[in-house]
Amino acid sequence: MKKVLVLGVGAQGSAAAKRLDLEPNVEEVICADYDMKAVENVVSSIKKGRGVQVDAHDKDSIVAAAQGVDLILNGLPLECTKNVLDAALEVKANYQDYASTINLYDVWRNSEEGKKDNDGLADNVTSEATKEWIDSLKAQYRIYGPKFKEIGKLAIVGTGSAPGLICCATRRAVRELDTCDTIYNIVWEGAIAKRFQPFWWSPITALTDMSEEALAFENGTFVNRPAFGVPEKRQYDYMDEEITFLEHSHDEPLHYGFNADTHFKGCKNAYFKYAGAGMDFAKPLYQAGLLSHEAENYKGNEIVPFDYVLTHIPPAPKYKEEIKEIIDEGLVKDSGCMVIEAYGKKDGADTLVETHVFAPGLVESFERAGITAEMYLTGQGGFFFSKMFVNDKFDQTGLISSDMLTEDQVDTYFDYAAELGITLETKIKENK
């Protein structure tokens, strides 16, 4: 029987906690957050739950809550990641993170290995934020990985819907090729409320990603591409309109680039393309300079445009009554897509493997679980990794990202997903 600490019971963490509560191999789900209202809201709805207040900016607070747990599930902002990783090592627990942190670059740059680093992965990168991101992933793989291996535990990062579920779906698509040249991860957030609700997940995370240059893996190296740039149109057969997808700063090309030879059959190019109400809202803000993190003077007052804009954006709905109210008001659209396009060779021919992820929309997610489609896909997407932990489906130790599962583990992941209405459809086409 396993004990799991869920750190951060917002949109994703609360969904995972509720699912873990139903697992026969789980003895206790410890729900932890600084916001005790959020904690009590989750604990009151499950049977095996226990609530505790944790200040994740204090490692010792995490350690105190994590005593005796088998798994720490981190659903907190990136700024807390180092504390949670260090706490997991101290209590000798497995670790799972929905995100892939960008706050470990100093750990890498101050390490002996980091000081000697000349692998050239960032040579063609222009953004300092992207260089920090690359160095943070190196710190996870090359510094924290050996530490978790030493205590015989596993840490997995990037385990939500994207990254996470989409990475496993990408592995499934690439399986159909003999060699892979190019991967596209294509996401459309098509749930639009009548009220002003541009984001269904953390606005600060969304706008932070949107305020940065995009990251791609191109011709075997990491590069920056213009934020909101390089438009490409797609209309799949279940979509009633053509959608323009834009560049977006996201984890997937980074992971695929690091693991191109070991897990993606020599992939040379990887891109993340994004569309939806959040992108439509953020693009003009970005163009007007209102997503800048640099302080400026306005009528004698110093303001940071990004911070000021953020104060005017509603948080993602996470309570059942909030979500019901939005649905009852009416939706403009309840749609979307998550698609993997993998281009390469199969039996000597140029081939496109097109894998579509199908999942409940907003209304169906609420009917099934009282949550939004974003909470459902990310929460359940993360839960499937947690379920694999509590059912002892991992034999690896160290630190891996969600695109590094074995083929059998990928199959187990999607067996679990199908039970909750998340399925794949793959089409193999000649690439003319």
TrEMBL record:
Show where the Saccharopine dehydrogenase NADP binding domain sits.
4-109
- Give the organism's phylogenetic lineage: Bacteria, Bacillati, Bacillota, Clostridia, Peptostreptococcales
Indicate what this protein is called per its UniProt record: Saccharopine dehydrogenase NADP-binding domain-containing protein
Pfam families on file: Sacchrp_dh_NADP
